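Hi L.,

As promised, Leucine-rich repeat-containing protein 74B-like:
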Amino acid sequence: MSTDSSEDKVETTVVYVAPVEESSEEPPMDEWSSLEIDIPEENPKRVLYSEGLYDPGSGEICTKYVSMSASSVFRHPYFNYPAVVDPGINDALLKPEAKITYPDDGQALYLATCKDMKQYPVMKFHRELLTDKIDLKYYCVQPFGVRAMAMALNYNRNVSSFNLTDNFLNDDACFHLGEMLMSNFTMSELILSGCRIGPEGVKLLVAGLPYNRGLRSLNLNKNGIGDLGVEYIASKVVRGIDVQKLYLSYNNISGKGANTLAEAFETHNKFTVLDLSWNNLFAPLVGTNTLLNRLSENKYLQELYLSWNSLAGARVGTAIKSLLKIPSLRVLDLSNNKLSDEGIHNFIGNMIKPKKMVTLNLSYNPLTHDDSLKLLTKMKLPAVKIQNLFMDGVLVDTDFLNLLTQLKSMKSKQNTVITYGGVSGGFKAEEPDLRDLVLNRMEFLTMKGKKKKVNMALVILQMEKDKIDIMNSKAFEDAVMATGAPLDSDLVNEMINAFAGPKSAKFKTIRISLFADYIRRKWPDRKLPPTPPPEPEPEPPPPTKVQKKGKGKKK
């Protein structure tokens, strides 16, 4: 068997043949790539070592690169490991905690204290710590939050006035305020009016007052401290305090408390303003008289308020007379008391003593016409320097008005202000006319309503025209009701009273002529319609012919 083998022949087509450049020259040796060798830079330490400028050391391995637990590492016997720096453990265990120092303005201290006490800070107080006045009146301050406020004010040098009016404070708040007054000498005014602190609160508040040398005004109005609270204040006054203005109004202080203050003033009597208004100084009156006599020895007193104390009597007038001897007195308020007669006459003579007095207030005292006239007569003297005499609520007479006119015409008294309540005697108040009121009411009910309208004015005029003059009350009421006018019996009775007729023991009467005359003057356009002329009488019928007897008779 034979096999045929054949080779496949592939036909190719030549498109392009590149020319081959033959060259017998080779590139230079410096261009051979095999000869390019990177020579590493020489170690700088070796260079320095060769120059004798570097010492590699002993050859020991640095412990920075060796684990401390490797026991096979050779340790140099004289090598000292550095000690661990104390992070503050010794100071924390052996020394007391460092005290935090806050700025003197107290803002940071206030916020820190509120945070420790878990109290909400009063941001108004926080802002005003940088001003000269902190005003928190009617602010509903939390009593326990006053501790943080007092601590913030301990060393504050900005605030000079602190107002807590009508914020109810407890004993704890008063204690911290008292502690604050022992260290704060910048504050000159503390207002606690209406805080209801009571006698125990006053005791805690004024405990450190003798050590304070900055407070000048202390306002304790409306706190209900009573005579016991006055005793606590008096005990500090005896030791000498720098407070010049003391306000104690509306505190239920009686004559006993006034006597306690008088005893304290024997030692220290330098107040310039004292307010004892709205108290009970009328009982016992002996203590009040003693206080007034003691105050007359004060050469610095400028303002004294004694209103609303029911002061009365000749002894009070004598005590007031001694007060007018104070050379520096400017304001004396005796309003709303019971001064009259001898109580006024006893001190009138000393009105020329005070040369700096501006105001004497005697308003709402039961002064008689004679009292007011004597006061005005004394005011007319050139030696009296009082500028304002207030007598509001006091009734005067015409003599007072004439004298007042003369006083105002004086050049030296042109700026003097004198007030009074009213004038009595010689004047009569003008009352409304009952007749006018009755007619207006009658007109409203009969002509302005929606019901049947009846012109009562014409009804009265018609009665007069019918020659009716005097009627008793019963007959007049029946006549009014017969017209259908919507008038009740009370109004009819007032009409009878306004135009009353002759008196009778049995019944009232009304005069219609007076009633009609007033109606014509009040409403001149109201007139009755003219009376029509009388109708002519009819003519009598003509007489008829009478037949003669016997004529026309049949025979």
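Confidence is low (pLDDT under 50) at residues 1-8, 551-555.

Thanks again for sending the construct details.

K.
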